[in-house]
Amino acid sequence: MPDAYIICGTPRSGSTLLCDLLADSGAGRPASYFRRQSIVRIAEELAVGLMPGQDGFERAYLHAVIEAGRGGGQLFGLRLMRENAPELMAMLDRLYPGRVTDAARLGAAFGSVRYIHLSRGDKVAQAVSLLKAARTGLWHKGADGSDRERYDAEGEAVYDPRQMDDTVAELDSYDAAWRAWFAAENIAPFSIVYERFAADPIGVMGQLLAFLELDPVTAAGLAPRTARLADGQSADWIARFRARDGEG
């Protein structure tokens, strides 16, 4: 069995659903431990005792994160969004100098690592989901329909074709960057496409657990903890974008 796995994802590609199911499988406790906006909060929650910029913080934070990401077991899980990857690699280069590749740096920090590439085929729907979440403040709902992750709204969710263009291009660039990184690092990841995962989460989880050398039968007892947020407004935005671009 590997020592760790890294979910290499992009926003609104099903990563919360995946992290939940992996944690419920006993496969670590994956989270975005290296999201720059969350590091101070996580350091406080994990009682690191130091803050970013202080001597010894990075090594102490890494050790605390590894313990948290194991969730009481031996397998460490990490969710890593593409925009946070360069900062993590730079930190590991400082902690483990002399490694010439990112894979070597990650191996020095986490041991034997398996990689999961989580992507979403429909970038238009992904962009709509991201923009609506950012504007309304509602990022996730529980399976029972209750709010699970909601922040103060930035404003009313209004269709903006320029924002859509920019967001679709950004999401395309993130996936392209992951593919280029896998090729450069000679990594063959386990690939999960959101559309198939959302349609058959238990089937995909069985295959993923086998990839991680865990019992795939465990997947049969899992149940998603999140509900989909797409609604009529989402469908309208998608249709408007595709009609403008001649996709409809």
Give a quick precis of the structure.
The protein has 248 residues and is of the alpha/beta class. The chain has helices at residues 15-24, 39-45, 57-70, 85-95, 102-110, 123-136, 161-184, 194-199, 201-211, 232-244, and strands at 4-9, 76-81, 113-119, 138-142, 147-150, 190-193, 226-227. The protein contains ten helices and seven strands.
Describe the protein.
It is a single chain. With 248 residues, the protein is α/β, with parallel strands linked by helices. The chain has a single domain (4-244), classed as P-loop containing nucleotide triphosphate hydrolases (Rossmann fold, 3-Layer(aba) Sandwich), CATH 3.40.50.300. The protein is 48% helix and 14% strand. It has helices at residues 15-24, 39-45, 57-70, 85-95, 102-110, 123-136, 161-184, 194-199, 201-211, 232-244, and strands spanning 4-9, 76-81, 113-119, 138-142, 147-150, 190-193, 226-227. The strands form two sheets. A four-stranded parallel beta sheet has the order 2-1-3-6. Helix 6 (123-136) packs across helix 10. The longest helix has 24 residues, at 161-184. The mean pLDDT is 93.
